[in-house]
Write the structure tokens for this entry.
Amino acid sequence: MSMREYDVIVVGTGPAGLFCAAHLAPAKVLILEKMKLPGRKLLLAGSGQCNLTHSGDVKTFTGNYGDHGNFVKPSLMACSNETVMDFFEHRGVPLFTNENDKVFPVSLRADDVLDALLDACDEAGVEIFYSEVVKSVAPNNGGYSVQTSLTAYQAKYVVIATGGMSYPGTGSTGDGYAFAESLGHTIVLPEPSLTPVYVDDHLLWDLSGISLPAKVSIWHEGKKLMTREGDLLITRFGYSGPVILDASRWMRAGDQLRIAFTPLSPEEVDTLLKERTAESGGKQIQNLLSGLSCPDRLTRALVEISGIPEGTTGGQLTSKMRGALVENLTGFPVIVERVGDFGVAMCTAGGVPLAEINKKTCESKIAPGIFFAGEVMDIDGDTGGYNIQAAFSTGFVAAKTILRMLCA
Ligand SMILES: Cc1cc2nc3c(=O)[nH]c(=O)nc-3n(C[C@H](O)[C@H](O)[C@H](O)COP(=O)(O)OP(=O)(O)OC[C@H]3O[C@@H](n4cnc5c(N)ncnc54)[C@H](O)[C@@H]3O)c2cc1C
């Protein structure tokens, strides 16, 4: 029996696959999806509210993709946040930007974003087959044969948009890496990214739920790797919140984190303590610490952890106690036991190496006619809408390149 033939087969109905297929008209396009329903991970995005991109100048986005912004840049320029916002607004999904510059649908429903993508695919005449697991992609007859759990198809071009490995229950189980390897690619070890951190000897566990602005530096084998600022969430087993999630791609078990719970420097906190003690030395220590932007419960805990007995006044504070308190407020040391695994990570670092993909077209440099879009590539962005934006932008670039090739 002859195989059904398409111009393009897209593997995966995540934001990358759907956005790509929606821009492929008038080509004959099939999307193959292993799950019964489309876009399972997209529906979880932003806690179901879907932070689909970020506002502001897209040129500034490149810093939000770790060391890989240079690769994403041409895609972002070809399909910017404005392009994405126009796409949804024109399809009846009004958007708004929150106080952190994150862009959401006004309805705060990820379903609306998914429905708009599916409608666009429908209008473009795209066929979608569900519950069809792609098993292999292999060169055949000048194009590619795509073998699924049910049958085989033939296409001139294949877009691998299978996502990463996080939240495997959504269908993203790293299948695309095996396809890429079979076509001659190498794979950068996939690791969880945008994930909470679990720490040894978690002294603040009973403050879980407290969220505050903080500065976190990562120390690896005694050397400072970087410092990040943003909202920190204390959890029962460690820390989360944007500042931790964004920095998690660089954290390893055994690293030390130093957390500044106040924007003041150690010298400023030291001076403030001395001045306030001179003014009101009879006051208890925690009362001398007001105005540090650190919640009272946390301040009390840090006073205790610093070995300062309850009820100690400013006048009774020894320089050793003051030193410990200053350190704990401005560089609270914790050791990373582990970062969250793929079950809790929102993203995957690693994947198809960017050196093996043309950044201007998203076409494989190794297997011509094979394209990659979205998280299957070694791209992981910060929280704030950067991952879905990258999925849209790379899917768009793959689509436009394929259309040019089909017309040539
Ligand atoms: C809880 C959570 C919240 C998030 N929130 C946000 C957010 O608010 N903003 C943001 O920018 N990012 C967010 N992300 C990240 C973002 O959702 C992903 O980066 C994005 O979905 C990646 O898109 P993708 O199309 O590359 O892959 P995916 O969305 O992972 O889609 C891949 C698709 O391919 C299918 N597939 C895989 N293998 C096969 C196969 N063999 N055959 C057929 N089909 C296959 C999968 O079933 C899946 O449907 C969040 C992630 C999580 C887990």
Notes: The two ends are 30 Å apart (CA to CA). The chain is about 30% helix and 25% strand.
